[in-house]
Structures are given as C-alpha cells and as structure tokens.
Amino acid sequence: MNTLTSSTPEIVAVPRKRIDRYWLLVLPLLALLAVLYLFPLLRVLWLSFSVPQPGLQNYARFIDNASVHRVLWTTLRICSMTTVISVALGYAIAFAMVHVGPRQRMALFFGLLVPFWASVLIRAFSWLFLLGEQGLVNNTLMALGMTDEPLQLMRNPFGVVVGMVHFMIPYAVLPLYSNMKGIDPQLARASQGLGASAFLTFRKVYFPQTLPGIYGAGLLVFIFSLGFYVTPVILGGGRTVMVAEYISTQILQLVNWGSGAALASVLLMAIVAVLVALSRFINLRELFGAK
C-alpha cells in the first residue's frame, strides 16, 4: 500500500555571527551618512539655540515677525500650487505612458528625462527668455493680437510656479507611472463588460487604485518644493521670496546665523510633521515601495 507523504521545506537557520558580520558591512555607510547628514543637522539645531546667546530668542522672534509670516505663507502657497499642478499634469502624462505603444512610451520617457540633462540654473534662465517682456510668449501673444502690451509673467508667483512645475513634473510622473503600471487592466475591461461607461469605470475602478501613486507623488513634490532656492530667486526677482531664499539672506548677507538656523530648523520640523501626520492615514512604507 502506497502512502503519500508531504514534505515541508526545511528552514535553514542563519548563524547569528554571520548576521553580525553583515551589519559590519553597513557600518561604513552609516558612518558616512552620520558625517554628511546627521552632524550638519545637529550643528544647525545647535546654532539656532546658541547664537548669538543661548536660549529660545531666535524662535521667539518668529512669533511677531511679519516678514517671516509673509515668507512662510508665500512658500506654503507656491508649494501647494506647484504640487497640485505637477500631480495633475503628471497624472495625465503617466496615464498616457501606460496606455500607448512602446515607441510612443519611449518618446514620452525621452521628453520627460531630457530636462534632467540640464542644471536647474540653465532651466530657470531658459524661462527668462520665454516669459520676459520681450520673450517668446509675449511676442507671440502680441503678434496674434491677444494683448497690446507685454504681460508681467515674471517677478511674481506665476513665474515661480511655472519654473517649479517644469522642474517637478518628472518627480510626479515616475511614482504615478509605477503605480499605474501595476494596475490589472482586466478590472477595467470587466467593469465595462458589465455595462459601466468608460467614465464610471475610471471613477469607480481605475482612479481609486491610483490614489497611492497620487499621495506619493504629491508628498514628493511638496517636500522638494519647500527647499527650492534657484528658481524662486531667478524668476521671482526678489519680489516672491520663499523660505530658502530668506534663510540664505539671513546667513550670507545679514550674517544672522541664529535666525537663519532657527528658520531652517522650523522648515525641517515642518517636513517631519507632515510625514508624521500622513503616516497616521497612509502606510508610508508601502507608499515608497517597501514590502
């Protein structure tokens, strides 16, 4: 009489000493990160509490400082607009990349990654020639008779947002494309096969599955936008001051290390607070691809 036996795979225990040796390989990297990132952050925090004298006076000044309030509000407003526009445009581009053929997808990828070959300084200056009073946009509008005089497209929030959106679109597209690529197309076909319209299928079936990509892209764009310096300086022209430019002015021009370090610390704590708040509603580990 034959008997069927089921064999279970044996679990091979890894010696603890071998695991400890693996950690030794990571120690140089951790030491490098500590030197390059952790130590400067601690140094900035120390300066915010110790210069010009120990205490909380650098932080207390922000409470009644109208210029700081204006800079923070400008930064929040511009970063929010940049995030919304970048994610909206990135969603459309990622959707097209998923649903076109290989050649068209390659062309879209090429057009998306070309800006990475130029520095942020060159990209910001290119917008000067496009949005200036004698730039391509104004000359075209006047040639078409749509305006009698050049429009003020720079040295205001509009120009800053345009430049920042141009820089941030790739960072919005890539998380969205990765998310959309993992959606099973059979779900949409099944929905339409059951009688749902294309719009209803998109709203009820497809769009909810892209929410993790939207959250990830929005978070990435917003956090990157908070630290923008070159683009607001060039396209803002000193009239649209964001927090990074204000910190630079405090440290490099006014030599006010304490206030500059304190504002930089506030910016860092704001980013951490955003991540902590989102972690209560979103699994950040899954959002950024951790299993």
TrEMBL record:
<dbReference type="GO" id="GO:0055085">
    <property type="term" value="P:transmembrane transport"/>
</dbReference>
<feature type="transmembrane region" description="Helical">
    <location>
        <begin position="255"/>
        <end position="278"/>
    </location>
</feature>
<dbReference type="InterPro" id="IPR000515">
    <property type="entry name" value="MetI-like"/>
</dbReference>
<feature type="transmembrane region" description="Helical">
    <location>
        <begin position="213"/>
        <end position="235"/>
    </location>
</feature>
<feature type="domain" description="ABC transmembrane type-1">
    <location>
        <begin position="72"/>
        <end position="280"/>
    </location>
</feature>
<protein>
    <submittedName>
        <fullName>ABC transporter permease</fullName>
    </submittedName>
</protein>
<keyword id="KW-0813">Transport</keyword>
<feature type="transmembrane region" description="Helical">
    <location>
        <begin position="71"/>
        <end position="94"/>
    </location>
</feature>
<feature type="transmembrane region" description="Helical">
    <location>
        <begin position="158"/>
        <end position="177"/>
    </location>
</feature>
<keyword id="KW-0472">Membrane</keyword>
<dbReference type="InterPro" id="IPR035906">
    <property type="entry name" value="MetI-like_sf"/>
</dbReference>
<keyword id="KW-1003">Cell membrane</keyword>
<feature type="transmembrane region" description="Helical">
    <location>
        <begin position="106"/>
        <end position="130"/>
    </location>
</feature>
<dbReference type="Pfam" id="PF00528">
    <property type="entry name" value="BPD_transp_1"/>
</dbReference>
<keyword id="KW-1133">Transmembrane helix</keyword>
<keyword id="KW-0812">Transmembrane</keyword>
<feature type="transmembrane region" description="Helical">
    <location>
        <begin position="22"/>
        <end position="46"/>
    </location>
</feature>
<comment type="similarity">
    <text>Belongs to the binding-protein-dependent transport system permease family. CysTW subfamily.</text>
</comment>
<dbReference type="GO" id="GO:0005886">
    <property type="term" value="C:plasma membrane"/>
</dbReference>
